[in-house]
């Protein structure tokens, strides 16, 4: 009746990565790009939605930079 369970291995195993990861405003995936709008607002996009909207955003004068 002696089960060796590694009970002490579960502590401090999760560094909470979500605290530093922004989410895409369109689909909720991890954001790769931060968009700064000329109106002063900001958006976050994943790679997929950055490609989808980049041309129009640049036309509007928005700024794109890496969120990483
Ligand atoms: Zn997305």
Automatic annotation (TrEMBL):
Pfam families given in the database record: DUF7455
InterPro entries, per database record: DUF7455 (IPR055878)
Domain DUF7455 stretches: 19-64
Domain of life: Bacteria
Stated name of the protein: DUF7455 domain-containing protein
Organism this protein belongs to: Pseudonocardia adelaidensis
Lineage, uppermost ranks: Bacteria, Bacillati, Actinomycetota, Actinomycetes, Pseudonocardiales
């Amino acid at each position: 009746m002696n089960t060796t369970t590694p009970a002490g291995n579960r502590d401090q195993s999760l560094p909470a990565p979500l605290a530093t990861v922004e989410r895409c405003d369109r689909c909720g995936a991890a954001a790769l790009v931060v968009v700064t709008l000329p109106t002063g607002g900001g958006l976050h996009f994943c790679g997929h939605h950055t490609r989808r909207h980049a041309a129009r955003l640049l036309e509007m004068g928005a700024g794109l930079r890496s969120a990483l």
